[in-house]
Design brief:
The structure holds 2 protein chains of 2 kinds. Chain A is an alpha+beta fold. Chain A is built from 13 helices and 12 strands. Classes of the chains: A alpha+beta, B alpha+beta.
């Protein structure tokens, strides 16, 4: 049965390539969209993940960084510092603005870092320094390359010119990049002298971030305290909740296209083997065996299509960033599981029309020469 | 022609499957395009409908959405003193992530003075906020979360009572909500803060002159609302265009594969007949025409069906998920047919090669 299915499948190579390619592309629609959103999800939390902070303190009820603003009085930093278990507190200022080079505007998280900031600075520097002084900025390397900016050149941030003294890696997503300036410059340009946006907290060795976070929450008023992982999870949730409906619609269309391609392939292939199936029936083969052959053929095609689709997606995850795009694709296990299951459903459904054909096949047909 | 038609129509199930496959691919392309057009329309809805023709933002800020703007003190008075400016309407705006029924919902908060304007432009129910902690909520978002007039919504830890529901203020990404400016200042812990000024000008006023004078003020950037709307579109196009192009490209390839498969199969099945035609002096060109006609028919029929399907699917999506706006341009139909044509041409490459390489003697050897 499997051998017959394999022979049916591999006898005509061009048909095999077209059908496997068609299914692969349909599944690629689902895989690629999932990969885009997973990539956005991961990149959007990069700053939080690599900030070095165990705990993030923000304005009461501000649980996100992206598309949000947080404002805390200066005094909160001192109060947090005295909470048992806290090793260090780094305040940062934050807003979303542009890194401007000529006519080019690049949306960015602008981070104001205090002098000798222990936490919250760039985590990977491809060239230059890693902490900005007054009048200095660190911007993302991709953004710099795209805009033709090198170390020592000037960019405009918050309406002022800054000298680029460092280029950072891993700080750009599809949506925005991260640019670092000194807290002093940030304060002067925004007039935000007595407030900070977030407090980045490092806990003492051996202390659990969850326990210290609970302590800060209990002892300091009007703040929201989250562990790094908790804060990052909130950020990911925004992307997830925003994308659920889009992904569902696209998945449904991808599923239908995959189904059409697969149904067409299995149907065409069964049709061209009609005489052979008739012969098998005439020789006493039971319908169930023939059904299973068709099903096996569909499943094999879909498995090949799935593997091919996955290979293209993985290739895209490597190729897309090379073209200077900030679009990052990442394949998640959940996505693989989902697309794998969808593939099997496609295989089962696409075998239905050919199975009906075989069921109605007259064994005598073969002797009539039809 | 008749040979092409016979080849195609001999197996109706196969033809239907192939037309269906192309139709789905074309539908996907159209839905993606329509979705982007809808998002674009939704993105600029506030700028399109709010009062005034000029926006004053913080220096270096050219977008309403995406960036934070905070104007220096006294800009409103200075702007109003410029000849030709009728009124400077202040708003304090900020993206806020609402937690509604365990779901994160990004929303764009507009803090405004109901006496001056800049709030919702169409209310489906209720009224504008008059007193402390009252909110006009987007109708679609309210429906999705079963919120009604009189219900409470938590914004940055403070409960607001819904006193009005607004129309035309939604999108799949974010919805607008409106509160009094004083409440917004308290929420953002920034008393007296203003993000943008919406300027109305008197009839016959020279807009360029007003913009020039405004831009002479320290710490501000003045631009027309139309320019700001274009900047917002550009900003979001940057985010959406790459994934969208990727999906459209894949959909096009899928459609091409489907047509390719059907035409290839039909050609291989008729190999003997083509051989006979060649043996009796039929030219390759004639056979190419037969193959191409089949491909064109399957592709264009699929593209037409795709246009119809896209319209029905768009209606269904918008009724099931009102936050999505799918807008079709009249040119989209033509582009779908062009896509179909492209699919047909590419899909014919393999089958024409099969025909070209066919030896006329083949038919006599079998």
């Amino acid at each position: 049965m499997i051998r017959l299915a394999l022979r049916n499948l591999f006898q005509n190579k061009i048909r095999l390539v077209i059908s496997v390619g068609g299914v692969a592309l349909a599944l690629l629609l689902i895989l690629a969209l999932d990969a885009v959103f997973t990539g956005v999800e991961r990149r959007i939390t990069a700053y939080i993940d690599y900030s070095g902070a165990d705990i993030w303190v923000s304005q009461a009820d501000v649980r996100n960084m992206h598309m949000a603003s947080s404002s805390l009085p200066d005094s909160v930093a001192r109060r947090v510092k005295y909470v048992p278990g806290v090793a260090s507190v780094t305040p940062i200022l934050y807003l979303t603005n542009n890194v401007v080079v000529g006519d080019e505007r690049n949306l960015a998280y602008i981070i104001g870092l205090p002098e000798n900031a222990e936490l919250g600075g760039p985590w990977s520097i491809s060239s230059g320094r890693n902490l900005p002084g007054e009048g200095e900025a660190i911007i993302n390397r991709n953004v710099a390359e795209k805009s033709g900016i090198a170390l020592g050149d000037e960019v405009e941030i918050l309406g002022e010119e800054f000298e680029v003294i460092g280029l950072s890696e891993g700080t750009a997503s599809l949506v925005n990049s991260v640019a670092f300036i000194s807290m002093k410059d940030f304060e002067e340009l925004r007039g935000s002298y007595d407030t900070v946006s977030f407090l980045l907290v490092k806990v003492n060795d051996g202390e659990s971030p969850e326990a210290v976070a609970a302590r800060i929450q209990a002892q300091v008023r009007d703040v929201t305290v989250q562990t790094r992982n908790g804060f990052a999870a909130q950020e990911r949730q925004v992307v997830k909740d925003m994308s659920t409906d889009v992904i569902t619609i696209m998945n449904l269309i991808g599923f239908l296209i995959g189904l059409a391609v697969m149904a067409l392939t299995v149907y065409t292939s069964t049709l061209s083997r009609r005489r052979e199936y008739g012969m098998l029936k005439a020789l006493g083969a039971r319908n169930i065996n023939l059904y299973l052959t068709v099903l096996a053929q569909a499943i094999l095609s879909v498995i090949l299509g799935f593997l091919f689709g996955l290979a293209i997606t993985l290739l895209m995850t490597m190729v897309v960033p090379i073209f200077g795009s900030n679009l990052t694709l990442e394949v998640s296990r959940i996505s693989l599981l989902k697309v794998g299951s969808v593939s099997l459903v496609i295989a089962a459904l696409s075998a239905m029309i050919p199975i009906r054909q075989i069921a109605g096949l007259d064994p005598a047909m073969v002797f009539r020469g039809r | 022609m008749s040979l092409a038609r016979r080849n195609l129509f001999q197996d109706k199930t196969r033809l239907l499957l192939s037309i269906g496959g192309v139709a789905l691919a074309v539908m996907l392309i159209l839905i993606l395009k329509g979705f982007l057009s809808g998002v674009n329309r939704q993105i600029t809805s506030y700028l399109d409908r709010s009062p005034g023709s000029i926006v004053v933002a913080e220096e270096d800020v050219v977008n309403l959405l995406g960036t934070t703007s905070l104007l220096p003190d006294g800009v409103a008075q200075k702007s109003e003193s410029i000849r030709g400016v009728d009124e400077a309407i202040p708003i304090l705006s900020q993206f806020i992530i609402l937690d509604l029924h365990e779901k994160k919902q990004p929303a764009y908060m507009i803090g405004y003075d109901p006496k001056q304007g800049g709030g919702p432009w169409e209310l489906s129910a209720g009224r504008e906020p008059r007193s402390k902690r009252e909110i006009v909520f987007d109708r679609v978002l309210a429906d999705r979360h079963d919120l009604k007039l009189g219900d409470e919504v938590e914004v940055l830890g403070k409960d607001f009572t819904i006193v009005g529901l607004s129309n035309g203020t939604t999108s799949w990404m974010t919805s607008y909500f409106f509160i009094r400016k004083q409440d917004a200042e308290k929420l953002l812990l920034n008393p007296g803060a203003t993000s943008f000024l919406l300027l109305t000008t008197s009839d016959g006023a020279n807009q360029d002159d007003i913009l020039r004078r405004l831009n002479n003020l320290s710490g501000v950037n003045a631009l027309t609302k139309r320019q700001m709307a274009a900047n917002d579109l550009k900003l979001f196009a940057k985010v959406f265009s790459a994934p969208l192009k990727l999906m459209v490209g894949i959909a096009f390839l899928v459609g091409t594969m489907i047509v390719g498969l059907i035409i290839y199969t039909a050609t291989v099945e008729r190999q003997r007949e083509y051989g006979v035609i060649k043996a009796i002096g039929g030219k390759n060109r004639f056979l190419y025409q037969v193959v191409l006609t089949q491909a064109l028919f399957a592709s264009l029929a699929g593209a037409l069906l795709g246009v119809l399907l896209a319209n029905s699917a768009a209606q269904w999506i918008m009724s099931a998920r009102p936050q999505f706006l799918i807008v079709f341009d009249p040119a989209d139909g033509g582009q779908a047919l062009l896509a179909g044509l492209g699919m047909a041409l590419i899909a014919s490459i393999f089958p024409t090669r099969v025909v070209a390489n066919l030896a006329p003697a083949e038919v006599f050897r079998k």
